[in-house]
Amino acid sequence: KLGIEHVDFVTMRAPKPTLILVATRDFFDIEGSWTCYREAKRLYGLLDRAERVDLFEFDDKHGFSSPRRHAAVRFMWRWLGARTGEPVFPKVTLCTDAELQCTATGQVLRDVAGSRSVVEFNVDRAAYLAKRRTAATVVDVCRQIACPDEHDGFPVGVAQDGEAAIRARAGGKSFAISVRGRGATTARGRRTYGGWFGPDFHPAFLAMHAGESLLGLRVSDVRKALDGLQEVAGGVTLEADAAGQAVVLHAAFLDRRVVAVRLTSPLLSWTALVSQPLQTRRIGDIVPGALELYDLPDLVAALEKRGCKVRIAKSR
Hints:
Layout (H helix, E strand, L loop, with lengths): L5 H6 L6 E6 L6 H17 L6 E6 L7 H15 L16 H4 L7 H4 L6 H15 L5 H7 L12 E4 L5 E5 L2 E6 L22 H9 L4 H14 L8 E5 L4 H10 L3 E6 L6 H6 L20 H11 L2 E4 L4
Parallel strand pairs: 1-2, 6-7, 7-8
Antiparallel strand pairs: 3-5, 4-5, 4-6
Helix pairs in contact: 9-10, 10-12
């Protein structure tokens, strides 16, 4: 979004000596590290200082393990002219939890009167924003979720009478829509932090790093799927369970071909997520800064005002 890549943070240092320390099995892509290094090496070479940028890779996981600590010290010794040889690290005795605590129990909220949690500050902020919001426009929402003007060509699965978190009904037919990260394109084998983030963790953060949002890209997938259905000429009804709810509401808001929405689970909201942050598998629905403009119930109100019928399952 800002036009800055990883390599730019290295080349901005040129021609100062710079060492890139990487782990083969880090959750950051090792190929990206080598690409970054090769590009930086070329630029340092153009400055006739190619020897001042280097990369050290060790076959382990994320962290600052002993091999990389040794490599870092050797690099510093070389360029600071301190000494040569192999560094020897003293044995480290880790502090106990009690020694590290800055309060009696280690719980600031419990031990310091008047303390407030980040959640409480976020709830206050959400309430403040809710009072200031006006009706969001299509342009506002499209920009906020970074929904592309044209689809990027990612394969979208559409199957008549199939099962998916998002379904379209048109012309008496039912179609299951598998947006990116769903169905055959579900991310598998990647870290999900104990299930808190689920399979959307990797694609959601990649989208954010690129100045996009996974939600916006999935909305584009739904609209692309509708483009391929001849039956939508008479209007389409979008259905979704909890996993597809945010996508469907945004797609309906941005696309007037959608004349009705049916949610098979109770209405979700970003405000509720702020006050109850331990909800799982919501990372794919998050759009940074969205509450400054609207919340999901605001989209429902706007759809109903437009004449789009919205049916929402009640809480049990």
